[in-house]
Amino acid sequence: MEINGQTVSGTGRYDQMNLSPELMRAIEKKGYVEATSIQAGAIPWFMEWKDVIAKAPTGTGKTFAFGIPMVEHTDPAVSDVTGLVLAPTRELAIQIRDELRDLCAFKEGVRVVCLYGGQPIGSQINQLKKRPQIVVATPGRLMDHMKRRTIRLDKVDTVVLDEADRMLDMGFVRDVTHILDQMPKRKNLGMFSATISREVLDISWVYQREPVEITVQADQENRPDIAQYRLDVDRSEKADTMVRLLEMGDYERVIAFCNTKNMTDRLAGLLDMRGVSCEAIHGDITQSLRERALKKFREGRLRVLAATDVAARGLDIDDVDAVFNFDVPDENEYYIHRVGRTGRAKRHGVAFSLVSTITEGLRLDDIVKSTGSQIRTVYFNEKGDLVAAVERSCEKNPGTSG
Question: What is the CATH number of the domain that holds 344?
Answer without folding.
Answer: 3.40.50.300
